[in-house]
Amino acid sequence: MLDTFAAWLTFDLMGFVPGSRLGEALWFFLYDTPKVLLLLVSVVFVMGVVHSYISPERTRAWLANKPLGLGNVMAAGLGIVTPFCSCSAVPLFIGFLSAGVPLGVTFSFLISAPMVNEVALVLLFGLFGWKVAALYLMLGLSVAIVAGLVIGRLGMEHHLEDWVRTIQMGAAPDLGNGNPGWRDRFGHGIAHVKEIVGRVWPWLIAGIAVGAGIHGYVPQDLMAGIMGKEQWWAVPAAVLLGVPMYSNAAGILPVIQALLGKGAALGTALAFMMSVIAISLPEMIILRKVLKPTLIAVFAGVVAAGIMLVGFVFNAVL
């Protein structure tokens, strides 16, 4: 319904031509902005209510008792059933951090949610068959889990922005004496929304605006020419091309199909797709409000290395 309303605003009310660059960019912005903002408010509110029951210290203690990597596996698995683009996954990432979930575990979710979800898998199965879908699932989860483990082992919590660390290390909320009622817990959820959304929303809008502009003006033929070459640098070049762009799995897969039809190698095209939906520039802009530049650079570097490995493996075996 939201996409239909955005299309009505863009093409019927404003009179832009469907398929035009500016029209498609504006449609994307009008569609994605309310979707992501509603998701952000909803998730942060729910996390605020949950926070009224369980303190960050208790959450950290519970996860600390899990065997090495199990938290990353659980977070990556959760990402499969959350069909979000990278910018839509950021609100949950923030919510997990605010609840005290370890940094590496939250990154496993942030990588998995846009890159390996049921939408991507169903579309890959329909377009390329079960072997491609299964290999993509296995390698995508591996990237999410291993990247989360690496980032977690680096101990970079001090590269979170100070306001996030304050929330993480805070005590359980004071909801008064006795057993607090739902009104108190909802009140804490609303306060949580004001605190977090009030800080993040300008960056969110800026990220979506960048993504909308790229969505409407990307030169597809140029990318197909580069990714169709067999040089060793085709996969790294595809990843670099994908980082400034923004889409979700459903939006980028038709582009991948078109690129393959113009001669792009499958592994190179999938590496491009994974970089678009897992480490996009709009996502980095939004994450800047939560993470310091060093941590963003490490996150992007680790994930990019994993994606390039996936691209090389696909090109080698298929």
List keywords for this structure.
16 helices; 318 residues; mainly alpha
Q: What is the CA-atom radius of gyration, in angstroms?
A: 20 Å
Number of DSSP-assigned strands: 0
Multimeric state: single chain
Strand-and-helix sequence, N→C? HHHHHHHHHHHHHHHH
Mean pLDDT: 77
| Overall tally of domains | 1
Polypeptide structure, described:
By secondary structure, the protein is mostly helical. Helices cover 76% and strands 0% of the residues. It has 16 helices and no strands. The chain has helices at 2-13, 21-51, 56-64, 70-80, 86-98, 103-115, 118-128, 130-153, 162-169, 182-217, 220-227, 234-242, 249-261, 266-278, 281-287, 293-317.
Q: Can I get a quick summary?
A:
This protein is mainly alpha-helical.
Summarize the helices and strands and which ones pair or pack.
Layout: H1 2-13, H2 21-51, H3 56-64, H4 70-80, H5 86-98, H6 103-115, H7 118-128, H8 130-153, H9 162-169, H10 182-217, H11 220-227, H12 234-242, H13 249-261, H14 266-278, H15 281-287, H16 293-317
